[in-house]
Structures are given as structure tokens and as C-alpha cells.
Amino acid sequence: MTAYRSSLLKLLEERGYIHQLTDPAALDALAEKGPVTGYIGFDATAPSLHVGNLVSIMLLRRMQQAGHRPIVLMGGGTTKVGDPSGKDESRKLLAEADIDSNIAKIRKNFEPFLTFGDGPTDAIMLNNAEWLDGLEYLPFLRDIGPHFTINRMLTFDSVRLRLDREQPLTFLEFNYMILQAYDFLELSRRQECRLQLGGSDQWGNIVNGIELARRVDGTELYGVTTPLITTADGAKMGKTAQGAVWLNPDMLSPYDYWQFWRNTQDADVGKFLRLFTDLSLDIIVRLESLPGAEINDAKVVLATEATALLHGRDAALDAKKTAHQTFAEGGTGGDLPTLSVGDGMTIAHALTALGFTPSNKEAKRKIAEGAVRLNDQPVSDPSLVVTVTADPVKLSLGKKRHALLTR
After folding, report:
1. Neighbours of 258 (CB within 10 A)
2. Cα–Cα distances in Å, from 389 out to 103, 341, 342, 343, 376?
3. Is residue 217 domain-shared with residue 73, that is, in the same domain?
4. Binding site for L-tyrosine, residues?
5. pLDDT by residue for the chain (407 residues), tens digit each?
């Protein structure tokens, strides 16, 4: 490990957040002197962020824990363009009203993790539409355009990978990296922001902003990227067969969020405890070293601590209790997701409506495999109509997905 002097870089390295740094020695010295302002940008493409965004949220939390000032930059302007990074096709363009609505809802995703306010290390949320919406095209091209070459832009992964796959890249998307660089310049001027953080796929965009500020204002800026967070089997973090793991409780219940973390693979427990909880490293080392089946105890701790950060300690403990009642005691924990079947609903339709399966066809396949149970009894008929009179009926898919069917 590198012998950093600043508490910020020490914290980020020991918990596994650092992939690349620009000028590590200078950034380390700057962070040691006093509060550094740093930012991460988030486009508002949905009414909630998801677990794939969580490492970035935790980065901002770590900044604040180390005595620095985080900026959450919402992409009210850049969402109108769409980041091509890691995408095979253009994002769906949203209406301005939808973008504004998404931003208002996304703010709630950050509130459990950051302290917002006016103090020197309090977080603030800004919207890049504040400066991007007012840009005039020709003056912007004249002032900013000369600092970018097409030759260099074509080498960045966000562009090169799309072209290598022979997927269309619109001129609109091609502008995204220039706008992100301009964001860094504006934040440097407006907020004395000296640091941009992000995932490894943002390295080129971050470097663009650093070089732009140096050329235009003579200001030294810095960048930190995190490694791509994947699971032990190589899958992208937060992607499941049921879709995105949302942070908004209206889109994913605290119980399902807890269950997502409980299902972590053995080899990922230590890494995820470092990245996504506030537990001390001494405790994490002990937990990740538990032998054999005891590693499941560490997964319960991971699930409870990660859920407590987002949804609060009470919700996390309720989810833990429900899981225990469901798995260990064979009960029907009251915190399970519920679905009203009205006067009746086919078992296949219920599985799909709950999000347990992506389609009725997949639901029928799971039923044929013997993976579906009602009140712990196997179901073999996909056309079975479930009716509920008084007590809820427990619907299970495999060993880990359960719900209550109600009238």
C-alpha cells in the first residue's frame, strides 16, 4: 500500500476505493492542508439511483468522514445529452419536467449518507443546468472547442468501444465529454472545487476537465477513480435477474434490499464490508475470516449494516427479523413484499407481478423446475389460480425470494 499522509487518501486506499489518481503526491499534500472540495456527477435518468451508484455515494461519504466537502452534482443539463460511457445505444431522451422530477426524488437517496448544510465540510447539491442551459453555441465552441481534438476524443473508451462494436454514436452524445469537462471548470470557478471522483469509465472525462482548467484558468485540479465493482463471478455490481437494485424504498423494499446483500457471494463479503459499511477494519477482518458456513453470519452483518445506512437501523433490524422468521422458523414475516390478488390471479402472473420473474414464460419455466411453492408446498400447474380469503398466502421462488399474497 502507498504511504499516503492525508486521512482522505489513507481512508480511500485502505477500504479499496482507489483505482487511478492524477498526481497522487500533490493531491495528498492538498488534502493534508485542509478541507478539499470534491464532486461526483449523477445524471437524472430515473427517479432513483441504484446499487451500481452506491460506491460513488460512499466515496462522497468517505470525503466527508475525512473532513472534506462533497458536492453532489445533478446532471439537469447533461441528462439532456446522455453519457455514452458503457452504453451500446443512445439513452432515451427525457422531457425537462421528468428530469426535474427525477432530481427531486434522487436527492432523498443521498440524505441518509451525507450531512447537507452551509458548514465548511457540509455537502451541497448543485444542478449543472444552472450553467449549461444558458450556454450560447457559437461562443461555447469558440472558447472551449479549441482545447479538444477529435483525434484524442476518439481514443476514449466511451467513444472507441461504441465504434468498435459498430454501434451508432450520435453527435449529441459525442459532446458529453466536453460538457463534463466544462462542469469541472465551472465548479472550480464557482465552488473552488479541486477534485472530481468517479468510476473507472470516467477517467478520460475527468482528465479532460483537469486539462481544460489548466489551459483556460491555470488551475490545478485532480481526479480519483474507483475500480469497476464486480462480483466474484465477474458480474457487474447491482445487476440481478430481477433488474436494478433501487435505493428508493418505493421501488425496492428495505427487506428486498437487505436480501440483496444477504445473497452476497462468499468471496465478496470482505470487499463489500469495506466499501459499503462503516464497520471498522478490525471487525471486517474478523468477519471475512469466518470459516465454512459461518461466513453466512458475516453476510447477515453486511446486509444489516448496508440496509441501516440507507433505510435506518429499525428497518434493517425488521428485515433481519423477517428473514429469520421466513427461513429459520418457517413463518411468514410481516416485512415481506405483498401483492393483492383480488378475486384471484394465476401463479405465473403473481410471480411476474412481484418481479420474481421477468415474464410469465419464465415463471412457467420456474414452476416446471419445481422452484415455486405456496405456503411451502410445491406448485406444478402454472395456470393455478391463487385465491386468498383470510390469512395471507406465502409465495416462494427458490430458497431466497418470498412474498405474501393478500386479498
Report:
1. 28
2. 42, 10, 10, 9, 18
3. yes
4. 39, 176, 180
5. 678 999 999 999 999 999 999 999 999 999 999 899 999 999 999 999 999 999 999 999 999 999 999 999 999 998 988 765 555 455 577 889 999 999 999 999 999 999 999 999 999 999 999 999 999 988 988 899 888 888 888 877 777 777 777 777 777 777 888 999 999 999 999 999 999 999 998 998 899 999 999 999 999 999 999 998 888 878 877 766 557 899 999 999 999 899 899 989 999 999 999 999 999 999 999 999 999 989 999 999 999 999 999 999 999 999 999 888 876 655 555 567 777 878 788 888 888 888 888 888 888 888 888 888 887 778 888 888 888 765 677 888 887 788 888 76
Tell me how many degrees the CA angle 282-286-287 measures, rounded to the nearest 5: 115
Range of the structural domain that residue 123 is part of = 7-226
Structural domain total, the chain: 3
Binding-site positions: 39, 176, 180, 239
Report the predicted TM-score, pTM, of the whole model to 2 decimal places: 0.80
Specify binding-site residues for ATP: 239
